[in-house]
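User: quick one, sequence for these C-alpha cells?
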C-alpha cells in the first residue's frame, strides 16, 4: 500500500517539473505600459470624477457666458425699457412679461440682460484680483523660500500680520481709503488680501524644493543661485499655487460681491455686476425678493463651480489625498 504522503509529494514534484519545462512563449509575455507623468495621471482620475466634471462644466459655462455676454443679452442693460410701467407707490418693480422673462428692476431695465452682462464684470473682478494676489504672493514667496534667513523672517512676519486681520475686514478697510470707489479699487483691495495666501503656500513649496536632489546637484555643479531659483526651484513649486488660484478665484468673486453690496464697488450701475445688483435690491427685499435671489444664486453657483474644480484638482495632484 502506497503512503499518502509519498504520493502527494510525488504529484507536487511532477507539477513543478511540468511548470519548469514550460517555455517562455507558452507561458506568455508581460506587455510594458508607458509611464505616465503626474499631470497625465491626474487627468485620468479627474475625467472620471463627477465632482470635477460638474465644477468644470459650471466654470466653462460661466466663462463662455462672460465672453459673449454683450451679444447674448436680449436687451441693453443700461436702458429702462419698462420705465413707463414703474409706479413708485403701487408697482416700483415691473414683473415678468413677454420679452422680459425675469421682469425689470426699479429703473425699468431688463433683469435678465443685467444678469448676463454682469457675468463679464464679475469675471473681470475675480480674474484680475486673483492675478494681482498671485503676482504679489509670487514675489514674496520667492524671496522667502529662496533666500531664507532674515529675508524669510521679515516676509513671514508681514504675512502673519496680514493674515491676523479678517480678509473681508481688511478688504473693506482698503476700499474705504479710496476717495472715489470704482471697480479697480475693489480689484486692488481683494488682490492685497489674497497676497499672503499665495506667499505662504509658495514659500512652503520653495522650502521643500531647496532640499531636493536636483537642487543639491545643481549647487554641486556650481550653478548660480539665481539660475537655481528661477530654473529649478520656482517652476517645480508653482503647481500647488496654480491649483490654489482656482479656489482663491471663488473667494475673490464672493468678496467682490460683498464690497459691492456694502457700496464700496463701482457706483456706475450702467455696467452691472452681481454684487452691485444684490446691494441695490435690499430696499425691495421684503416685497420683491427675486431681485436679490437671481444675482445671489449666480454668485453661489459660480463660486461652487470654481471650488469643486479646484478641490478635485488639488486632490488629484496631491499623493497624500488621492482616493
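Assistant:
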Amino acid at each position: 500500500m502506497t503512503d499518502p504522503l509519498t504520493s502527494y509529494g510525488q504529484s507536487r514534484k511532477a507539477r513543478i517539473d511540468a511548470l519548469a519545462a514550460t517555455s517562455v512563449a507558452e507561458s506568455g509575455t508581460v506587455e510594458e505600459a508607458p509611464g505616465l507623468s503626474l499631470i497625465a495621471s491626474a487627468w485620468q482620475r479627474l475625467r472620471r470624477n463627477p465632482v470635477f466634471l460638474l465644477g468644470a462644466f459650471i466654470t466653462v459655462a460661466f466663462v463662455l457666458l462672460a465672453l459673449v455676454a454683450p451679444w447674448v443679452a436680449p436687451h441693453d442693460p443700461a436702458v429702462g425699457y419698462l420705465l413707463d410701467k414703474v409706479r413708485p407707490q403701487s408697482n416700483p418693480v415691473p414683473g415678468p412679461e413677454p420679452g422680459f422673462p425675469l421682469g425689470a428692476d426699479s429703473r425699468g431695465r431688463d433683469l435678465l440682460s443685467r444678469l448676463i452682462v454682469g457675468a463679464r464684470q464679475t469675471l473681470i473682478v475675480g480674474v484680475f484680483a486673483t492675478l494681482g494676489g498671485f503676482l504679489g504672493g509670487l514675489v514674496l514667496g520667492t524671496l522667502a523660500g529662496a533666500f531664507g534667513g532674515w529675508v524669510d523672517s521679515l516676509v513671514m512676519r508681514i504675512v502673519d500680520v496680514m493674515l491676523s486681520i479678517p480678509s473681508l475686514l481688511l478688504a473693506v478697510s482698503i476700499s474705504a481709503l479710496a476717495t472715489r470707489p470704482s471697480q479697480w479699487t475693489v480689484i486692488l483691495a481683494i488682490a492685497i488680501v489674497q497676497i499672503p495666501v499665495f506667499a505662504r503656500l509658495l514659500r512652503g513649496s520653495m522650502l521643500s524644493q531647496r532640499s531636493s536632489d536636483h537642487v543639491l546637484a545643481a549647487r554641486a555643479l556650481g550653478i548660480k543661485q539665481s539660475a537655481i531659483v528661477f530654473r529649478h526651484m520656482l517652476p517645480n513649486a508653482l503647481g500647488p499655487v496654480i491649483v490654489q488660484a482656482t479656489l482663491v478665484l471663488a473667494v475673490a468673486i464672493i468678496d467682490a460681491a460683498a464690497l459691492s453690496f456694502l457700496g464700496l464697488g463701482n457706483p456706475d450701475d450702467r455696467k452691472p455686476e452681481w454684487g452691485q445688483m444684490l446691494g441695490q435690491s435690499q430696499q425691495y427685499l421684503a416685497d420683491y425678493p427675486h431681485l436679490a435671489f437671481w444675482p445671489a444664486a449666480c454668485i453661489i453657483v459660480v463660486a461652487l463651480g470654481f471650488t469643486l474644480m479646484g478641490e478635485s484638482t488639488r486632490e488629484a495632484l496631491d499623493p497624500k489625498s488621492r482616493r
